[in-house]
Amino acid sequence: MQLQHRINAFVKLGQFLDQFSIAEPIKNNTVAFNDVFFDGFKHQLKLAQEHNGWFTKANLLYAIQGWAKVLTDKKLTEWLSHYDFCNSTPKQVAIIMAGNIPMVGFHDFLSVLISGHRVLVKQSSNDKHLVPFLAKYLEYVEPAFKGKISFTEQKLEGYDAVIATGSNNTARYFEYYFKNKPSIIRRNRNSVAVLQGNETEEQLEALSNDVFRYYGLGCRSVSKLFVPKNYNFDAFFKAIYKWHPVINEAKYANNYDYNKAVYLMSEFDMLENGFLMIKEDKSYASPIATVFYEHYESKETLISKLEKDKEQIQCVVSNGLISNEVNFGETQNPELSDYADGIDSISFLLKI
Asked: What SS3 class is residue 199?
């Protein structure tokens, strides 16, 4: 199968997903194999919601919108134009997927198949409905994919390389277990935002999307703020108010109540507005419904700290601080070339 054939298949998948990028999907009769798959995918979305309380309709919709936006001929061709696929030898690549946000492992799935390899997927039990269904769609639009995609709940066997995503604890296990295979092992990472005190209301409102999207469960979710000495949080609290309905969602509210009780009983200083708490803390990973913050003395010392701690950080949201910063409100809109942990998975896959 030629690279262009693989691209064409994912473009058709993008067209299929685009139907579901609005609150009430509208069937497009020009989409390939819609009669076979349209109603089935609606059902899988319903199952995903029922199975995982964090996978709300809004979060599923946002994830699908993101993939529909990038699975175009232009975006895929531009992404892949920087690589040489001529000498790639097909191998079996295992993927161990996380399940913190909807379809979080799909970029790895796409990367393996677009590189010409076979894929063996071990899914998280928290996110097991969508990717297998979309894999079947791919096999319909490009029959050459048949036999190249498999899923397992058993012990991984017969693979040549592995891409595994998990916690810091599971990463140590992965490193030992896969030590004799080419691998990408991903650990916990969090995203941060740097505030300088001169942000506009629009920037802070955009930042609220980086904080609350997917309830802060993603590695691209902002879980910590760096602020100058004597920073006044009033403008921040005002700008994030549009997200206040989140407290009406049971799982989020339960976490808010629990963490608030822990902070109060421990007599921690914190600020809160009824749906988010902010607490001074040097850690990067904050609990749900909480954002940590830390003061910085100067931009120079902060830049040095961010560089020193880069293995713990996925994205840095800022305005004119560092070269690879992310704009306010854009952490959950990655491009195809925005690789997790900064590791180029296509380059890895072309060398195995």
From this structure: coil
Q: How far apart are CA 198 and CA 206, in angstroms?
A: 15
| Distance between CA atoms of residues 1 and 5, nearest Å | 6
Q: Which of 267, 199, 252 lies closest to 59 in space, CA to CA?
A: 252
Any idea which architecture 3-187 has in CATH?
A: 3-Layer(aba) Sandwich (3.40)
CA angle, corner 186, sides to 183 and 191, nearest 5? 150
CA-to-CA separations, 186 to 282, 299, 352, in angstroms, rounded: 22, 29, 18
CA–CA separation, 63 and 127 (whole Å) = 13
Residue 276 tokens, joined = 């988010």
State CA 154 to chain mean position distance: 25
Q: Give the helix/strand (H/E) hosting 164.
A: strand 161-165
Burial 234-252 (b: 16+ CB within 10 A, else e): ebbbebbeebeebbebeeb
* SS3 at position 159: coil
Question: Is the confidence at residue 164, as pLDDT, over 90?
Answer: yes
Domains of the chain, by residue range, sit at: 3-187, 190-317
pLDDT in tens, 93-150: 999 999 999 999 999 999 999 999 999 999 999 999 999 999 999 999 999 999 999 9
**What's residue 88's pLDDT?**
84
Q: Which distant-in-sequence residues (6+ apart) come within 8 Å of 196 by Cβ?
A: 228, 319
- Of 152, 142, 41, 20, residue with least CA distance to 96: 152
Is residue 127 within 8 A of residue 99, CB to CB? The reply is: yes
Q: How confident is the model at residue 280 (pLDDT cuts 50, 70, 90)?
A: very high
pTM beyond 0.90: yes
Cα(145)–Cα(117) distance, integer angstroms: 10
Q: Class assignment of domain 190-317?
A: alpha beta
Written as six digits, the tokens of 319 are 């305005």
Helix, strand, or coil here: 21?
A: coil
The residues near 128 (Cβ < 8 Å, ≥ 6 apart) are 51, 99
Query: Residue 87: pLDDT band by 50, 70, 90 thresholds?
Result: confident
